[in-house]
Structure formats: structure tokens, C-alpha cells
Amino acid sequence: MTAETPAAATNIRMKVWRGDDTGGAFVEFAVPSDPGMVVLDVVHRIQATQAPDLAVRWNCKAGKCGSCSAEINGHPKLMCMTRMNEFAPGEVIAVSPVKTFPVIKDLVTDVSFNYEKAKTVPAFKPKPKEADGTRRMYQEDVDRVQEFHKCIECFLCQDVCHVIRDHEENKPSFSGPRFFVRLAGLEMHPLDTNDRLELIRAKHGLGFCNITKCCTEVCPEDIHITDNAIIPLKERVVTRNYDPIAWALRRMRGKKDEFAPPEPEPPSA
Amino acid sequence: MNDIERHEYDVVVVGAGGAGLRAAIEAHARGARTAVVCKSLLGKAHTVMAEGGIAAALANVWKEDNWKVHFRDTMRGGKLLNNWRMAQLHAQEAPDRVLELEEWGALFDRTKDGLILQRDFGGHRYARLAHVGDRTGLEMIRTLQDHVVAQGIDVFMECTVRHLLKDGDRVSGAIGYWRQTGKLVAFAAKAVVLATGGVGKAWKITSNSWEYTGDGIAMALEAGADLIDMEMTQFHPTGMVWPPSVRGLLVTEGVRGDGGTLKNKSGERFMFKYIPDFFRADTADTEREADAWYEDKRNNRRTPDLLPRDEVARAINSEVKAGRGTEHGGVFLDIASRRPADYIRRRLPSMYHQFKELADVDITKEAMEIGPTLHYIMGGIRVDPDTEATTLPGLYAAGEVAAGMHGANRLGGNSLSDLLVFGRRAGLAAADLAKRTPAVRVDDAQIGAYADRLAEPFQRSGNENPYQVQADLQETMHDLVGIIRTKSELEEALVRLERLRARAARVRVSGTRRYNPGWHLALDLDNLIGVSEAVARSALLREESRGGHTREDYPKPDPEWGKRNVVVRQRDGRLELATEPIPSVPDELRGLIGEDKPTGQVATGAPAAVGGTS
Prior knowledge:
- The complex is a heterodimer of chains A (269) and B (614).
- Chain A is 32% helix and 14% strand.
- With 269 residues, chain A is α+β, with helices and mostly antiparallel strands.
- Chain A has 2 domains: 6-109, Roll (Ubiquitin-like (UB roll)); 112-252, Fumarate Reductase Iron-sulfur Protein, Chain B, domain 2.
- Chain B is an alpha+beta fold.
């Protein structure tokens, strides 16, 4: 923290991408700085003093709601949690909308992809209550699912995922890391009884992921998306589909044969 | 007008926080064709920021707890101005509403026996708040959001509802605009449920997000519904004070619930000086007893650090005014010296992260600097306690936008439970009304008139900047209708609000209708200023100090005022104020609350009050 007083404030220079679905360009602004400013403060100051129609999504300004995702110098980040003192004094910072989703205007993108995918997730379906009418779960059993519930739906993991970032054509058959976190949270929920494994493989496109961990690196909640959600899901899918012992056991128990064709090849990313 | 997008539903719920989503779930479950309309993306409403927990007498941690104790705590915390029936329903139904979230997939922190763990909070006699670390609101909103999506309920996201439509005396729908395109959209509905939250963005230092512009309160007022208790605003005692960019950001009461304590710049635990008589019997008067209470509630009384929020906020204000505050005008909140670092990181992960990232403070090693921040409004739309029906047929209200439940001061944790209990009841009653109602009519002339008003900011000749008008409004409310009020300042506030209203009418918006925040704010200003006037007028009328309303010129509670609500309604474009008796508590419940009443001078920070307060 620099102990600057407003009187000693220096100017901040920031390039903000302005435009809409027909195109746009960076526009450079200069505003006075205050101690402790984050990128979103600068964008707000630009909006209040120079560009009143500058479009930006935000809500909590505390890293809790996941609304203000953008690319700052090309890195997917929350604007409200990116301090200006992370950058060299005098550096011109560039702020642009997330790349994976279509631009609506300026820093606001159309993230409806995610809300449509959410509709395809089969709901939580709890097992019956205990005999005494309670639901007993132990902290050590809920810990790993609570990690997934930390997700604030900022969609930065979706933005950085190369399966959809550079391949629009994959979007219909791939739900992205956010939904693998969601699905892992349901699959590992101590009370849930729904079986989503075949759906995860066939509809949500888990096989497209080749575990490059880009999603984990950008998660502002530090969820270990790849290690704790995606890889365990992949293991479950593999066990279900390719483990001959599990397959034989299912046959012996008279369960439906879910042996299915191999997973799709990962795209050339 | 034929080009305006139109929809028809049985029930339209405005707002997608906890109350709105719970109302929609209930209305849908009762067979009503239901839509949720919200200003932000789904899952981003203010509920997501709730930290500490949901108050419900589950009795998982203390077997002595039950709805009667919760009722008592709520009524006393509200300085007895609460609608007793709402407080009763809330205390009785909150446990079921919490357990229901578990049925929908929520995962609360657990006790050693595998049940829902509960934590201590201000004004609650027992550890009562179901929680998930310090991100309970996120768990709640995501659970409700996923349930809404799974039920296939229609959601209109980034769609701002701006006016109610009426068919004669009854509400028959609403009109608003899509934020993305600026195009208008009109809803016909047999019942409208307002769940739009509060009006914190009228103040400079607030924990509230941009959405909190008093929309529901203003729409209800415009349509002719009654408001009550608008002078009752809650300043949360612990908001961040440094650096300036995060000033006002909430620091959960859970810090104190988990052992943190307030200290002035000399290291004195000053809350012991500010114990009012009304809470003396429940409150520890030595540090030893206060510290022992966390582990043994049977033999010790509660720490004064966990007095209700109004008491703590006033105490902090007084310490700072007396020159005992920190460098940046707050006081210290210290958990670092009182609990192990790993405990703090596990119980308060968001607070740890927030201070580390935004203030370069490690809360496991240093004290936090905190001060009061406008957090909540207890006042709002007057509702029937059982059905959440407003005084207008066809209109319901639940959550922060409604009034009565919390009286003069809300206890921490009682908000999330309020959303669930009364959200459900509002959805239920709205669906029932829809079932009994044949088709409603929306009036094209009304739609046309509102469409013109929505377009007006583009056509004006003035040159006011909406952001500057809002900033000046925030200064006015902070300086003149803040934590401590007085007649001359409130009168000055009303003069300034008139000027701000005139300036707002000269705001000219540039750019197009496509996702234009300047235009959105220009429209929000009317709501912000209108609701601010209702707050200032009510505050001027109530000549006493009670709960969230503190008058330097009337520093004591007045038993006569304790029996009355201030009612605000709009007639012919002007606000009318009246006082009406609060419903009296039935004998069988009065025994639970106790016979004593709040008395004694409150801490206003004025020289006479410093050091001796009760």
C-alpha cells in the first residue's frame, strides 16, 4: 500500500476496449489515482467523469459475486480484485471484454452460454433421511464438495479454456470447467443419488478436456478445478465405461449396459 | 406501443435475491405460471454477499434454544417496534426453511454429530446461525438459483422493472427495460411480488451494491402502497475503512461471533462502557465473563462486543468522535491476538482473503480497522404479516423491501431467514390470489406514458451528469441523515433533496439505449431521491432515539413513540406522513419478551454522552 494522499495523486492511464458486436477499439483515458484502487475503481471513475455510457458489469466489488470478469493486459481477472499497485507506475493498462463470449457492448459480454448449459444439469436428488428424521453428514465428507460450492460463476475458467476460447464449434458439445465443478459437486455430494456419469461423458464433453490446468490458474476462488473436479470425474467415467471388472459386475447385477463408444478425440487446440 | 415486448404470467416476482427466488419457487410449486425478473445476472443479487449465516433455532449446538428464545431476541433487538406476528412466524418457521435448503443441495458446516453447525452472532442468546464459513449467502443463492433452474421457472435477467401497472385500484403488472438492448418490456400479472431489497446506494459509505436503489419501495409508493418505519436504517458496525476504494465493504459480525473483539486506539475493549440497561441482564460486564461466554453460555453472559448492531455502531461512532479512533477514523477489530491463525482462516476465509488482497492486512497477524457502514433498511413496504400482501391488491413484498419484521433494528442472521420465511409466504399468497383471479387488464395508456418517461433522459436539454448527482445525494444522506441525526440537519437534507430532484430532472443522457449505465442511473435517481425523502421525513417526525434511528436532540427512547409506526404514503405526487399504533403483542407472547422497555440516553457521540451512556 502506498501512502499517497489525494493531493499527491498521480494520473492513471488505462486503455479500455469500447465497441459492440460490430467491432470496436481501445480508447485511452487518464484519471487521478487514489490509494488502494482496483481496476474497477478506475473504470468507474472513467464512467463517472468521461464516458457515462461505458458498459461494465459489476455488483459486490468484493470478489464475491463474479460479475466483473474482464481481460486485464490479456489476463482473465476480476476487475474488483485487481489492485492498481500490481502494475508498474506509469504503465498503460489495457482492459478488454472476456474473449470466449460474444461482446454486447464495451466490457459486457453475452454469457448466456453458461445459463443455457446450467439448464442441462440434472438436479440434486437426495437419498431418504435418517431414521430420526435428520440428515447427518460429517465435515470431512462435505469439505471437498464445499470447495466446489465456492464457485462464484465469474466464468473466467470458461473464458480461458482453449476448448471453447478458440473453437466456437465446440460450444454445443462442451460445457466447460465451470460445469465440471458443478457436476463434480453433485456427483460427490454425500446425499445425492442421481447418476450423471454418462451425461457428463456424452453431453457435457468431459473428454475434450486435456487437463492443461488453465482454468485452475485463473480461478479467483482457488478451486483446484483440474485436480479435484475434472480428473476425479474422468476417473469415474473411465471406471464406468472401460473397467472390465466394473462392467462385468454391472452385467451380473442386471444393470443396463452402458458400455459406450470411446470418448471423442480432444480437438487440436 | 405495439412494438413493446409483452408477457403474461400469474405471478411476476421482481428481484432474484433470496426472497425473490424463494417466492418464485413457492408460487411455481403451487401451480402458478411464474416469472422472475432481475436487474443483474441470475445468482449475482445482493444475497450473494451475505456472510455470517442464517438465524434459525435448530438447537443443534444449544439444546436450550427454541423459537420462543429467537422471538424474544428478535423483539428486544428491534427495540419492541417489530410486528410481533412477523417475528413469531419468522422464529417458528426459520428452522424448516433452513432444512429445506439442505433438501435442495446446500451444504452447511457441520457439528461433530454431523448436524448443521451454528455460530454466535450479535443479540442472539445462543449460537444460532447456520453457516458455510463466511460465505453463507453464496451457498443460499446458488442453492435457490439451481432449484429455480431445475424447476424450469422463467427468468428475465438484466431486465429492470421500473413501474407498476394498475387496473383500477389493483396492481396488474409491471413495465421495465432490457439492460442489454434498452428495449421495453411489459408484464401482465395477476400478482406481483416485490423482492428488490433496500436503498443503500443513497449513502456514501455503504456495504450495498449498485443495485440497491430503492426500486421496489419507490414503485410501491408511486402505485399508492403504504410504507412504514422508513427512518429505521441500519449502520453495520464493522465496515472496512481503509483504503478509500473499499470503504464501507462489509466485515462479517462472524468475526466477533468467532471471538474477535473491538478495541480503541489505546487497546481498550470499550464496549463494556456502552451496555444499555435494556441489555444489562444479558450482557457480561467483565472481560473474564465475556471471554468465558463463548465456551459456556449457561454460566456466563454474552460479550458486549455482540450487543445488537445499533448499539455497537453508536459506540464506535462515539469512540471515534471522542478522539479514540484509529488513523483512518475507525476502531480496531482484533481476532489475531485471540484465536489461532488456522482457525481464523478456516472460519473466516473470505475476510482473510478480502483484507489480504484489498488492504494488505493479514487478519491472522494484525487487527482490522473498521467503522460503521450503511447496511440495511428495516423500514419499507407495509405488509400483512401472514401473506406479505401490501396495502394494494395484487401487490406483495418480501425481504428487505418489506417492513415490520425487524422493528427498529435487525439482528444479524435474521435477514437470510427473513428472505426464506417471507419469500415463501409471499409466493404462496400470490399464487393463491392468482388462482382466484380471472384475467387482469393492462392499460395501454399507462404503458405509453411510462414508455415516454423512460425515454425522457435522452431528450432533455439539461447538462447534469447522473453520476455527479448520485455522488452529491450520497454526501447529503451521509452528512445529514446518517448514524446520528438532528432536526436542523434533517430539515437541511430535505432542502437539498429538493435541489437534487431538480438537478436529476436536468440529467441528460448520451449514447444509445444499448447497455447504457448512464441512462440506467438517470432513471434510478428518481427512486433514490424519492426514497431518501421518505427516510428523511420519517426521521424528522420521530422525535426519539430507537434502534437504527438516533436523534441527538432526542437521545432517549420515548415510550409513546415506542407504540407507533411512522407511515408514509404518496397522494397526488406528494408524500403524506402519519403515525399509527403498532399491533399490540398478545399476552401469551408478551411474557416471553419481558416487561421492561428500552430506556436511558443512547450514545450519540455528543460531548455529554461520552463515557457514560446508559
